[in-house]
Amino acid sequence: MLNIITNYNSILAHIPDTMHTNIFLGREPTRAPGVIDQRAIFRAAARALEDLGLSLDPRTPVKALRVAEQQMVEVAKALSLDARVLIMDEPTAALTEHEIRELFATIRRLKGKGVSVVYISHRMEELFEIGDRVTVLRDGRTVGTYDVRATDKSELIRLMVNRELTDLFPKEHAARGAEALRVEHLSTEGGLKDVSFSLHRGEILGVAGLLGAGRTELARAIFGLDKLTAGAIYVGGEARRIGSPRAAIDAGLGFLTEDRKGQGLVLPLSVRENLCLSSVDKFTKWGVVDSAREREAANRYVKELRIRTPSLDQKVVYLSGGNQQKVVLSKWLCSEAEVFIFDEPTRGVDVGAKAEIYQLMNRLTASGVAIIMISSEMLEVLGMSDRVLVMRAGRIAGEFSAAAATQENILQCALGE
Amino acid sequence: MRPGRIALRQNFLSHYGRQLGTLSGLVALSLVLWALSPHFLTVSNLLNIAEQATIISIVAVGMTFVIITGGIDLSVGSVLAFSGVVMASALQRGVPLPLALASGLGVGLACGAVNGLLITVGRLPPFIATLGMMSVARGTALMFTEGRPISGFSENFRWFATGEVLRVPASVVIMICVYAVAHFVLRRTKLGRYTYAIGGNEEAALLSGVGVRAYKTLVYGIAGLLSGLAAILLTARLNSAQPIAGMMYELDAIAATVIGGTSLLGGEGTVAGTLVGALIMAVLRNGLNLLGVSSFIQQIVIGSVIIVAVLIDMALKRRGK
Predict the structure, then answer these.
(1) Mutation target vs A (from B208, B210, B212, B263; most A CBs, 10 A cutoff)
(2) Does A284 contact B196 at a Cβ distance shorter than 8 Å?
(3) Do A60 and A18 form a contact (C-beta atoms < 8 A)?
(4) Based on C-alpha coordinates, what's the Rg of chain A?
(5) Which residues contact A197 (CB under 8 A, 6 or more apart)?
(6) Interchain CB contact of B191 with A (< 8 Å)
(7) CATH number of A179-415
(8) Which of A126, B69, B122, B179 could form a disulfide with B118 if both were Cys (CB 3.0 to 4.6 A apart)?
(9) pLDDT tens for each residue of A305-358
């Protein structure tokens, strides 16, 4: 029996139910067919929790527990299933130092009982504390498995890094122009802490960092989606109050979200309608859309970006990932954005379309546009950026020029080593 | 055939293919009734059907807008009753006709706007907000009239029921105008574009700078306003405003909209389809009456037709993909 324990977003926490019903969800012992034996569940749940050394009432709703306790409930659930292998995916991401100690004590106890644990983490020190052996993965492949006593942090970082920088990245350096965007001391409730940087026309600013480091939060804050608790945003040298996406668009910003289908496109609408969605006002008089002019504009972008679609009226849901991405890009070109925020621009597009998107970025910067490129692909960050910001825990942890940036120092900075 | 022609044809079919399907359903139904009853295909009976269909079909236009945004409005029938009694009492107190009409429309608009604000600012699910309004508006109408109907109006007001334009009943002319305007709004205006965008993907619409809250509120306001308009026609026809008017209209309006091909998931739909859907319901009722089918069995037939129509629609859509 194998069981998976994930990080902060405990699945159980979304089920508004008590611990003992959760632990037996889907396999409730019954007295008569369809009638749940509450008492049996209660006893078994109490035993499972006791085994873990937890003094919790099984009738407590899972929602009311701390994250660490919710994880323990999942562990209890796994144990009650007689799990022999536990997979823990970043289990300590949302835990305090003390809770991490407790979790490790539990893991050691499980180990003593013969349970095997696969422990996934980006926190190096944890691997050396709790692991026996460590496996390094890179780009979906196994690089190697090592005894923790026979290796050290710097060796692991070297192994995590891919050295080959292929010529997939046709980076062309554009002339660096005037300041396009400057943010000072941005903080949000979403976890951004005192972030300041500036961006110039013709520049690509790469933003690197681990999952949860606050990169997307940064984009959301600049684009008026999350409320600022402190800080100021200057576009083209002018202070702007950006309280909504509309205000951001009017200030000349464009945001290519990570989740193209969920946030970038209205799938049941046509290429033309999507392309002009952020700039309908341009084509509207007295509330009526001038479809001839709209069509003309849409046609221009379809040609310019070589969007492969049978017609302007094709629903975007039927386009390929790369072409969908180009429609989103055209949307911001159409609303005359001068600062583009790309969040994971090449996720889910094939290699050919990737190269095309990089070419487009080159053309954008050549025409004086400034780009913030958030990316988890280290090679992309190194290959396309003029400068690299590294984020960690909602803050800027470091800044590197293109010449000084290497995979090793970015990763070290992101990990906080 | 040149490629351009093919594209154009695909385009036409993808836009109107669905309505053609519903329309052929309406035609088939009419042919059957024509064969079964000699009274069906007469000018007077067809005008009768059109008149019967006006009230629900006007309410259904508002419903179509709401459902395209991905919402639902259960309060349309109650709002109709509330608008009707307010307007009727204004008329009976000697308020000039235009002002009285404006009061009825205003009540509808206000109720709709409250729905919209509860949904956008209050973040209530549309189902709950309009379910509450359904009860509140009905209760207010009953309280306002102490449960009694308000009857007897001037000839001027009764024109809405008795008047004719080029031999076509005034209410049918008004209905046609409402559909023409609604069709134009959905296909050609910014409001229409945003209505589809919000229903198709609210998050993407918001990120593209659409004022989602304002436009959603406006759409519920429109639904309320059209309930007010329907109240004028119904009150004139019955020569009486009743606090219990419009019961279950929300279901008929939803049925007409859905039969007409509007997706309950939002982002898709046309008022042309809704008109055909409303006519199917009216023709079916009329035909069953002509054939002397009992009102109990009528309910069973109409319910089954709704289910079968949507089943067919879903099957066709799956095959289209």
Answers:
(1) B208
(2) no
(3) yes
(4) 25
(5) A182, A183, A205, A389, A396, A399
(6) yes
(7) 3.40.50.300
(8) B122
(9) 888 889 899 999 988 888 888 899 999 999 989 999 999 888 777 666 777 888
Same fold, A2-121 and A179-415: yes
> What is the separation of C-alpha A39 from the centre of its chain, rounded to a whole number of angstroms?
43
- Shortest alpha-carbon distance between residue B206 and chain A (Å): 7
H or E element at residue A205: strand A204-209
Residue type, A291: S
Which residues of chain B carry a pLDDT beneath 70?
1-19, 317, 319-321
Cβ-nearest to A266 among B11, B15, B204: B204
Contact between A310 and B190 using a beta-carbon 8 Å cutoff? no
Tens-digit pLDDT profile for residues A142-187: 888 999 888 887 788 778 766 554 556 777 787 788 889 999 999 9
B267–A335 CB contact, under 8 Å? no
Tokens for B131? 């379910």
The CATH number fitting domain B40-320, selected from 1.10.3470, 2.60.40, 1.10.760, 1.20.1440:
1.10.3470
Domain locations along chain B = 40-320
Structure tokens given for B16: 């109107």
Pairwise CA distance, residues A55 & A77, whole Å: 16
Q: Which of B232, B240, B277, B282 is nearest to B259 (CA)?
A: B277
Fold (CATH) for A2-121: Rossmann fold (3.40.50)
Paired strand residues for A238: A235
Task: Tell me the residue type at A285.
Answer: K
Q: In the numeric block, which tokens belong to residue A358?
A: 């990089």
Provide the token pair at A83: 């799990």
